[in-house]
Amino acid sequence: MATLLSTEHLSKSYTSGGSKLTVLDNVNLQVEEGSTMAIVGPSGSGKTTLLGLCAGLDSASSGSVVLNGIRLETLTEDQRAEVRNQYIGFIFQNFQLLPTLTALENVMVPMELRKQSNVKARAIELLDKVGLKDRSHHYPVQLSGGEQQRVSLARAFANTPRILFADEPTGNLDAETSERIENLIFSLNEEAGTTLILVTHNQDLAARTNRIVRIKGGKLVNEI
Amino acid sequence: MLNFPWLLRMAWRDSRKNISRLLLFISSIIIGIAALVSIFSLGDSMSAEIDNQAASLIGADLEISSSKPISNAIIKLIDSIPGQYSEQRSFASMVYFPRTGGTRLVQVRALEGDFPYYGQLETTPVKAARDFRARKTVLVDRALLLQFNVRVGDSVRLGNQGYVIEGELTGVPGQTGLSASVAPIVFIPLETLPKTGLDQKGSRISTSYFIKTDKRIDVNTLMEKIGPRLKEAGINYDTIESKKEETARSFRDLSRFLSLIGFIALLLGCIGVASAIHIYIREKINSIALLRCLGTTSRQAFMIYLIQIIVIGFIGSVLGVLLGTLIQQLLPVVIQDLLPVKINAVLSWRAMGEGLILGMIISVLFALSPLVSIRKISPLQTIRMSYQPDGKRDPLTWLIYSMVILFIIVFTRLQLRSWSEAMWFTLSVIIAFALLTLMARAMMWLIRKFFPTSWSYLWRQGLSNLYRPNNQTALLIVSIGLGTALICTLLFVESILMKRLVISSSGDQPNMILFDIQTAQKEAVKQLTLAQGLSVKDMVPIVNMRLERINQTTIETIRKDSSNPIQPWVFNREYRVTFRDSLTGSEKISKGKWTGKPDQDLIYVSIEDGYGTRNKIMIGDTMTFNVQGTLMETIVGSYRKVDWNRVQTNFLIVFPTGVLEKAPQFHVLLTHVPDVTTSARFQQTLVKTYPNISVIDLNLVLSILDDILGKIGFVIRFMAGFCILTGLIVLIASVLISKYQRIQESVLLRTLGAGRKQIYAINAIEYFLIGAMAATTGILLALIASWALAEFSFDTSFSPDWLPVLIIFIVICALTVLIGLINIRSIVNRSPLEILRNEN
Fold first, then answer.
1. What pLDDT was estimated at residue B721?
2. Residue B384 distance to chain A (closest CA, Å)
3. HSE on the CB side for B835, CA within 13 Å?
4. DSSP-assigned letter for residue B70
5. A96 and B290 in contact by Cβ < 8 A?
6. What is the pLDDT of residues B709-742, one digit of tens each?
7. What is the DSSP letter of B338?
8. Quick count: other Cβ atoms within 10 Å of Cβ B828?
């Protein structure tokens, strides 16, 4: 299978109080198209930083990220935004729905940005898939945590992304809801053939992926 | 690609749950826009009225007037103008109302003919305006009748003649309510003037001819022909056109001044908008970061919020325009006393359009600074809540600040006459804002630095709220402080002006001036004054003269050479000159030498230094005066510095003794009356015995000044009210906005067991401190401004009245606390969980 995402000597460091703090140190990684991968590691190990860099949310101090053949470090922030809209889907720990938009509108946003047609029908279809068709006109504040994450899932798949980044997708949910969300993520992912990269502390969730990458002190330590 | 339809959709989606909050932000500019629209509309109504009522501003097609007797040649010239005319003699004199015993200095207008030809003398009863000339009765200013409790049908004495009051005078063409307060008018028939004995030689009588020209005559062409002859003879004239221009010019000055106060209210509101938008955007950071994450470009994110501001700015401006149009109906009532024409408020589309555009520009301009920060919001904030962008200031914000300053300068320039005035105004506004901000920051720093750690928890919490993140201390202090400063400065200036007069009349200083005393009456008046138990502080001779030449320069030279530094009025005015051998206490020689006596037939005069400097008249220059027909050559011997503030007879030109003693002259007597009763008794005796003598009582001047300041002060206070109201709205908006920040804190406090009373107490302390700091800062600023005005402009000492200041302080603190507590009520009265569910 072709490589969809790769990093080369990827490093990220911050200057804090005059001293340099390296959060990610010389990370080399390759992700095949259609595969699933979990990034695990203790708090502060650099998991989220790695996810942020791979998804083009931040720029590296050195090294490069190539996504779908595009070198992200050569792009401006607005060009990276376009890449995110075209190829990437996101699922966040705290759901990150726009509070002033209804569930339906939240799902429509990525498609509207791409000026797709039949946006509403497609959004309703996606909400139906996550079992929330009846609640499409509810605002996030009117939905439970699990429901919000399901809307977030529908939104993540709205622009038929090539790759899906999930940052602790079940971190804020109870066990029962977590299981339902996990099942949804994997079934939708399989159905769409999307590459999935998730950051998690949850060993059971990580175990459901094809590959687990362990990170510690900003370095890749081993791979299962 | 911006994808504009989507941007519009997103702007609507993002704002629909925040409409009331956005409207609240923008409400701060509604009052400012309303103030400006009402003034602009009034200006348009006024221009229309001046055009409509131009003829009635002067009551005739042409007015020819002079303060000296008009020669037969000129009278012949006037006679030759086809049409009809009315003659009027006007002068200041005392009136005496026998029934109530009141006396007062008035402006007597002795009238003959059918003046006014346009407009009318407004009287009660109406027919009195027509009848008084035939019935040889008089019309008396309504305020004067009220002041002395006199009615139509009562009698009034003017000089040697008694009259019956035919009617109350309520309006004269071209006259403002203000000028009627200074000099109330009494109309008498001209043919009865000789009987009063007030038209003696030496009396200062102005003569006017009001001419209604034949319809075939074009007044402007006529004046091109005869104007130069009139000017040459030192005679003034006014046509409908020139009066119209003059009236429009003076109103423009008034409306410009008022619009600047309105503009300050608008600026104040804009600061409120900028601050509110700043907080709004800060609350939206997460949503913006997420939109960026989903692929929205920085321009698109910026546009989503810019569209919201434009729409809300439009709504706010429309509301402001509507409110302004309503207020415009009220404004004529407020400023009627300052206007020479009656105004019917009409809708001005131009003013409404200007208000709308101004509102849009200013709301966007002031919202831009917080809006551009959107471009810097990173998508990383969706996964890292602690992410902080670099603290460097966006260079665009400097560009926006420059645009704001440029806008203020340009707008001010449109209201003022020159760029330098506009720059000064802008600089003053910036300094005021900077000072208020600086003081707010200094106070916050001081509280932090010297934090009273031993105080109770409630006080410590209330105090620390003042400098916590997202505090609104500086904004509230600037907005409330500026409003307070305006109102207090107004109060202080009024009190400085009044006190200066009161001080002038205190102790044994002269407080009554008797003038028009003929030489023959001089001794008798002196004796009468002494007989009343009053002292004669000074008796000064006055000789009227005109200036013919300075060296070889005459009025003709100046007419031909406009670059000559000597102003035409130097030759056109009538000089009232005295002669003496010594200087008075209010004079000091600043240049040259004063001898007080003629030096070998050379007459050395002393001139006031400002008069000399302005007209470049040097020591040693020759000034040739026309002393009622006799030319007299003098040499400028000295410059005098004169303290014009003293109640004293001060002069531009003083002659030495031994020159003017034989010239026709009148005298002025200065005395001190201890109380109102003595003053009234003395004036009554004087008017009965010497009806030609006029009296200026400082108590009268005080009451006139009080009246004028009251009328002008009311207008300014009305306009300053817009600033206060804006300050209050900014206060309410800021407090409501801060509610969203307080919810978490209050809920946490309540969860930890804080009682309702404790939460109320913490908030009351915080808002009281904000109110107190704002009021104190405003009052301090007003004290500094008033002190500077007193010291440098009015040349007097400044000691403010503390009672009104204390009242203002208490009212502002109480209002701030009240608004703050009403705001927190909704949080305190509900359960923490309910609040969190509803407000999230």
1. 76
2. 8
3. 21
4. P
5. yes
6. 777 777 777 777 777 777 777 777 777 766 666 6
7. G
8. 18
Cβ distance of A52 and B383 shorter than 8 Å = yes
Residues B405 and B433 sit within 8 Å (Cβ to Cβ): no
> What b/e string do you get for B628-666 counting C-beta neighbours within 10 Å, with b at 16 or more?
eeeebebebbbbbebeeeebbbbbbbbbbeebbeebebb
Q: How far is the C-alpha of B445 from the C-alpha of B461, rounded, in Å?
A: 16
Whole-number Å distance between alpha carbons of B310 and B359? 10
Residue with tokens 């009104």: B804
Residue B840 above 50 pLDDT? no
B802: number of Cβ within 10 Å: 10
What's the pTM?
Answer: 0.70
User: Is the Cβ–Cβ distance between B576 and B565 less than 8 Å?
Assistant: no
Interface mutation vs chain B, best among A98, A101, A105, most B CBs within 10 Å: A98
pLDDT grade for B177, boundaries at 50, 70 and 90:
low
Residue A115 is predicted with a pLDDT of: 86
pLDDT tens, residue by residue, B587-614 = 889 989 888 887 777 899 999 988 888 8
Q: Are B712 and B338 in contact (CB under 8 A)?
A: yes
Nearest-CA residue of chain B relative to A51? B383
Q: What is the ipTM of this complex?
A: 0.87
Cis preceding linkage at B125, omega within 30: yes
Inter-residue contact B522 to B667 (CB < 8 Å): yes
Q: Give residue A166's pLDDT.
A: 93
The SS3 call for residue B228 is helix
CA dist B144 and B707 (Å) reads 13
Q: How far is CA B517 from CA A181, B81, B694, B750, in A?
A: 108, 38, 8, 84
- Measured distance CA(B766)–CA(B745) in Å, rounded: 14
The residues with which B770 forms a beta bridge, in sequence order, are none
